[in-house]
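debug: dumping io for the single-chain case to check the tokenizer round-trip. Nothing else runs in this session.
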Amino acid sequence: MRVTGHVVRLAASALLVLLASTPGAAVEPGMLRPEPAALPAGSSDHVAVSRLGRLFVGPKLTELASTQTDSAPAHVWSLAAGTDGRTYLGTGPDGLLLKVQSSGRREVLFRAQEPMITALVLMPGGDLLAAASPGGKIYRVRPTGSAELWCETGERYVWALVRHGGKVYAATGENGRLFEIRDDGDAVLVFDSDEAHLTALAGSGNDLYAGGSGRGLVYKIDAEGHSQVLHDDPLPQVTGIAPSGDGSVLIATQGIPAGEPRRPAVRIQLPAGGDGLASSDTVELESDSPILRGVIEGLPSPEAEPAGQRGRVLRVTADGTSRELWSSTTEAPFAVAVDGAGRGLFGTGEPARLYRVEAGDEDITLLATLREGQLARLQATPGGVTLATSNPAAIYRAGNRPADYGVYLSTPLDAGSTVRWGSVRWESESEPGRAELYTRSGNSAVPDETWSAWSPAMILPGGAPIPNPDGRYLQWRARLFGGESSAAAISDVAVSYLPRNRRPRVRDLSLAGPGATSGEATFTWRWNDPDGDGVEATLQARRDGEQWRDVARENFDGGAAAPSWREGTLRWDTSGETTGRYALRLQLSDDISNHPGEGLEAGNGPIRHLIVDRDPPTLEVGTAGGGTVELRARDAHSAIRRLEYVVDGKALFRLRPRDGVCDSRNEVFDFPEARRVAGGMLRVVDMAGNISEQSL
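debug: decoded output
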């Protein structure tokens, strides 16, 4: 069996590279090695997965509180984490302000009349500023839970609040304005943007950064209120801004989810006050507010457009240069932050995931996948990072130190057929024993009770034999140890295996010619070997009452394993065979490409028949009458092919049998006397090409 450049699949369409053996060789070991891009499809518990294929123990993640109850809010709109371990969540659609203690105990601190608490700021002294929307109101909530209306912005939404340089600022919509909120609650306009909504707000140094929704603009606003566009994103909504200590800014943007394909539609612009269309009026494609709208009957619905970017995260450096760090066609980022080490963090949905931008922006690491729908808000604190999720609302804390251990479970690897497993090897960045690998095998794409048990722990990264039984699928599990000592990290996990040989296949055996021969017969067929093996083709023949025997044999080179069919040809010289009717079949074997005893046959394939005939036909000249002469052509073995009248060795004309078709061993012809020519001869030919000539 030969495997060349073969590619197999991970479950959930992830790709695996299958290393090849040399052309024409016997069965050679293959290798299943998950591509780095496929690793996030596995499941992990406290194991981080980097875009470059590195697995290591992630931060310890603790769930502080979950609001997953029948009456609990579904969405977190805002987050404020204090240094005392207390965390505050602004939720919807019930307009709740929740306080969560470090122990995980939660309580409703304040309930607004509005449905959403869209922004929070923790003030010195412990008071909270809570923005409620729609309505554009900001409440001041005391640590005891008592609250008062502090500011009415006059806007419909307050999407973000930030305390910067001792001042409080509010980003609003639907007019896209930025306000400074004075100590007495007065809202003073600082900046009026070209966006309908300002959805993200952050401060650094003497500057404010505001991101909009509609055009995807990010503004930089200095202390005097002078503004400039820092970044114009191709995606329309800015969802997060996080300034870094090096003067750069981390930005998260979202696109519009792809909608359902629509039928071809038209918009007709009618002239004002008229009943018909003037020559200057237009007929154009559908727009947002047509006067008349309809579908074009008879045209098919367009196919769904290719998925574009759903979200992206980028960095804008101090000199204004932007660079995309991450993008996805399925995930959207909802929040960004910068941790204590200066690394960027961002949270996405669906599902809720926490990513980290590694130092130098050279790698992106998936730190955690949560069970909720979206990771809605992030806030870095001295002890780590606080995470708030939506659908349902929950709160987590990721610490600064690695977890004690983590477990990663790969998706099932598909070898394409039942194989014998070899060994598993990996690259390790830690001392032996800090990483353990386990394997199990089966024949169903989804692991179930028919799969084998997990193997004992394997700790030798250079190659540990896999003890699991033969199967098509294999899954591996890594247990990595962290804690205070050096956390384990592995990469490039590879599984070797020996494929089982698979049978070649043969079909469409056919004989070139009329089914009879007096000498050489040519046979063609189509064949395929799923492993790309070379094959030996043997043509076998027998007469009635005899045994099958080999009459022709030839080897055919293999090729890359593929489902395509190839053509084969064999020639049988029948000159030494007894005249008669033979049954023929073809046997195909890949013995020549496999170890002794491991080759397989394709089976006998279809049976065809051939008449070997070296006896010429006979011709009887009958009585004449009515201006014609009756002629009877006979052959002992094969059908009469034709009867012709020849002069000087050249056919003058061909005679048609009385039944109209020349296809049997006995045929009757009528020769017209009027066409007799001096020196003319009758020539009869059978299907095997044997010839008889006779004068008339």
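debug: round-trip ok. The radius of gyration is 41 Å.
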